[in-house]
Amino acid sequence: MFLKNPEYFQLIVKEGSISRAAEKLYLSQPYLSQYLHKLEQTVGAVLLDRTHTPLRLTPAGEVFSSYLERRDYLDRQLFSDLRDMENQKRPVLHIGVSPWRGSTVLPDVLPLFTKEYPYVQIVLHEAPVPNLPALAASSATDFCIMHIPGDLTELTYELVLEERVLLIAHRHHPLLKGMKVPLDGSAPFPDLRMIEQERLILLPEDWRLTKLLRNSFAVLNMDPKNLLVTTNNTTAINLAAEGMGFAFLQESGLSRSPYLERLACFTIGDPPLTCPMAVVYRKNGFLSAAARAFIDLTKDVYRRYDR
User: Fold this and answer.
1) Rounded to whole angstroms, how far apart are CA atoms 297 and 299?
2) What is the pLDDT of residues 271-286, one digit of tens each?
């Protein structure tokens, strides 16, 4: 469908007013009102609720506005790809990830990806976990590998894995005496309340994993006080390996620890507590062929954890 001046409609929506949009466009209000009327005739639906101030999208208007956003993004992507072809540039894939996820996920996936797609240039955007949703919503990245954000207003996601959360400690910790301590985290911890008075190594309170753990503590009426807080999972693992307390880790990162022989790993609860790993990107955004291939490969790699 050919639409003339779709940016007029987008500005009306942004301003919530035909008159304010007309001022910014240096057009008369009657002209812009007539434009909107003709646009609605063209698409065959009422797009704006004029009885509401500021103007509000109708259900049909929401669909139409979403379509325009996707079309704008696709247009920009098309011209970018054409320029790259003209200039004989390599396709570039921008991936957002936390430093810890980067150190565990990327070594699993990148060697396979670059073998199959050697012509794709990878740019990593490493950022703290709380900053990743904004990074995913921006045009700076194609997608981010992270947990599922709480606010999905501008974002959508594809689930990669519901991975088990493991309780880890030094295998010779006094509290574990007499327990079977498998390295792969296949055994459940008998009772989480046993560690209430122990030192717990946690991530910050507003991080997804800590929120899940806090909920588990609340269910068991636990109120641990001896806490050591870090923003780095690697730090937590290394401290646990030195007997500094109990830490918690998503299972996909366990194999990358250099201290496996020192650690005891357990699942938590029945059924085991899990934490989602997802690929998150801008809602209605365009995924390039390289991005789609990377996401699909990541899902394939982590199917080994499917149960």
Assistant:
1) 5
2) 999 999 999 999 877 7
* Contact criterion met (CB below 8 Å) for 174 and 246: no
Q: Would you say 163 and 305 are in contact if contact means Cβ atoms under 8 Å apart?
A: yes
pLDDT, tens digit (0-9, with 9 covering 90-100), for 45-76: 999 988 888 988 998 888 888 888 777 766 76
Cα(251)–Cα(305) distance, rounded to whole angstroms? 9
Name 236's Cβ contacts closer than 8 Å, sequence gap at least 6: 201, 202, 203, 230, 247, 248, 249
Among left, alpha and beta (phi > 0; psi -120 to 50; other), residue 144 is: beta
Burial status of residue 32 (CB atoms within 10 A of its CB: 0-12, 13-18, 19 or more): buried
Output the domain CATH number for residue 58. Answer: 1.10.10.10
Beta strands in 171-293 (DSSP E): 187-188, 200-202, 227-229, 246-250, 263-267, 274-282
Based on the fold, state whether residues 262 and 187 are members of the same structural domain: yes
pTM equals: 0.69
Report if residue 80 sits inside a domain.
no
Sign of CA dihedral 30, 34, 40, 46: positive
**Domain residue limits at 17:** 6-65
Task: Read off the CATH number of the domain in which 242 is found.
Answer: 3.40.190.10
Residue 87: pLDDT band (50, 70, 90) is: low
Whether residue 1 is contained in a domain is answered as no
